[in-house]
Specification:
Blueprint (H helix, E strand, L loop, with lengths): L6 H16 L4 H8 L3 E10 L5 E12 L5 E8 L4 H17 L5 E8 L7 H15 L8 E5 L5 H15 L20 H19 L9 E5 L5 H10 L3 E7 L2 E4 L6 H9 L11 E3 L1 H5 L5 E4 L18 E3 L8 H9 L3 E3 L1 H4 L2 H15 L5 H26 L3 H19 L6
Parallel strand pairs: 3-4, 3-5, 6-7, 6-10, 10-11, 11-12
Antiparallel strand pairs: 1-2, 2-4, 7-8, 8-9
Helix pairs in contact: 1-3, 1-14, 3-14, 4-5, 6-7, 6-12, 6-13, 12-13, 13-14
Bound molecules: nicotinamide-adenine-dinucleotide.
């Protein structure tokens, strides 16, 4: 698949183009931003436990580095492709610019279902992939982090392999590491926490409060969905449905979230949870709830199901869960969407904190991390809210406009105009 082929890339670019046109941006800048700076495709051979060798496809794409080194997760998922990785790298450029980080946009991934591999196979896969992309990553070049199907352990293997290649420990090459090897307090929960901050900021603007009357459905109960559920549950909200790749569970009176977290953390699927009412992932997206958090994969709300989505507030925990047509349909119905590059930016913000702490070898307490996270997200949320008003556009467009304003300024100062 070529760079521009996937519907996800086309969708992300068309949203960017439309924001650029609204703010009457020089089309030359848009042309430059359509193309990633660099895209590396690698083959990752792994000897499986049964003795056979299987070769996996891997990618690392660096979209734009005007503001600093590349930053972006590594995804292990069967749908990974060059085009999807390029789209995600592009979103990272705009996310980092939006929240004011000195970082550019990158993304990586391997086309694999991690559930099919043993721990030893996953380790071998991660180590070989790291070796193959090692020439373009590093603390000053491009700093990976976890994404779908990867976690702190994956990052620890990546750091170890990169350190072996260099002959000394290089903790700054990745973020999302376990605390014991230079991770930041609060990083694991940061994306979900940021989603909940944004929900509260939106409710404040609407003169509402999250409480026991607030109903929530969460699509995807992983590193983003789980902490978001935890924090909303702690605030008293009723989480009526959650899901994973195996399906969804539902309780109109609210699920016992601590119990669900324990179940999923012991690597069990929700479809096997006893005593729960099971519904499909598709049904979850259409539940009549106050807040829907799509926190699994991209493209789950499209023009086909958007007319049936009833949630009043949609907080995009995942990257690109709503297509631009779905955004238009839901906005027309009066729904409010907190866009991905704002809503899920908590992860990259605390990744940035982790990188800074690692470079300084000086580590902050959890309160400091969460306070700084809150303040950066509040500033970005307010800027986007204001731009939505100034340009009379939805929050998605306003978020792209806010990012483009910063990027255009930086590109101008660095003399990086195309042509
Ligand atoms: P994860 O692997 O920890 O969790 C993903 C969840 O989605 C799991 O519950 C999985 O079972 C479920 N899922 C996977 N495929 C599915 C499908 N086809 N249908 C329904 N559910 C499915 O991943 P994550 O890190 O939580 O990432 C989720 C989303 O959030 C991704 O879009 C990712 O890019 C985005 N994101 C993650 C972070 C982060 O810090 N982890 C930061 C920003 C954005």
């Amino acid at each position: 698949m070529s760079l521009f082929e996937s519907p996800f890339f086309q969708d992300a670019y068309s949203q960017l183009e439309s924001a650029g046109n609204t703010m009457k941006m020089d089309p030359n800048v848009l042309e430059r931003l359509k193309y990633p700076k660099r895209a590396l495709q690698v083959s990752v051979p792994v000897r499986l436990d049964d003795g056979t060798v299987k070769v996996f496809e891997g990618y690392r794409v660096q979209h734009n580095m005007t503001l600093g080194p590349g930053k972006g997760g590594i995804r292990f998922h069967p749908h990974v492709s060059l085009s999807e990785t390029a789209a995600l790298a592009m979103l990272m450029t705009f996310k980092c610019a939006l929240v004011g980080l000195p970082l550019g946009g990158a993304k990586g991934g391997i086309k694999v279902d991690p559930n099919d591999l043993s721990r030893a196979e996953l380790q071998a896969l991660t180590r070989r992939y790291t070796t193959e992309i090692s020439m373009i990553i590093g603390p000053d070049k491009d700093i990976p982090a976890p994404d779908i199907g990867t976690d702190g352990q994956t990052m620890a293997w990546l750091m170890d392999t990169f350190s072996q290649l260099n002959g000394y420990a290089v903790p700054g090459v990745v973020t999302g590491k376990p605390i014991a090897i230079g991770g930041s307090l609060g990083r694991a929960e940061s994306t979900g926490k940021g989603v909940v901050f944004c929900i509260n900021f939106a409710y404040e603007k609407l003169n509402k409060t999250v409480g026991s009357n607030t109903t929530v459905a969460i699509h995807g109960f992983g590193k983003v969905g789980m902490p978001a559920a935890h924090d909303l549950h702690a605030q008293g909200a009723k989480i009526v449905a959650i899901s994973d790749v195996s399906g969804a569970i539902y309780n109109k009176n609210g699920l016992n979230i601590p119990q669900c977290i324990e179940w999923v953390k012991s690597r069990k699927f929700l479809r096997d949870m006893p005593g729960a009412e099971h519904i499909s992932n598709e049904e979850l997206l259409e539940l009549d709830v106050d807040i829907l958090i799509p926190a699994a994969i991209d493209g789950v709300v499209t023009k086909d199901n958007a007319p049936r989505v009833k949630a009043r507030l949609i907080a995009e925990g995942a990257n690109g869960p709503l297509t631009h047509e779905a955004v238009d349909i839901i906005t027309e119905k009066g729904g409010l969407i907190i866009p991905d590059i704002l809503c899920n930016a908590g992860g990259v913000i605390v990744s940035y904190f982790e990188w800074v702490q690692g470079l300084q070898m000086f580590f902050w307490d959890l309160e400091t991390v969460n306070k700084k996270l809150h303040d950066i997200m509040k500033l970005a949320f307010d800027k986007v809210w204001k731009n939505a008003d100034v340009y009379k556009v939805n929050m998605k467009q306003a978020a792209f406009i806010t990012s483009l304003q910063r990027l255009e300024g930086a590109m101008r100062l660095r003399g990086m105009w195309p042509g």
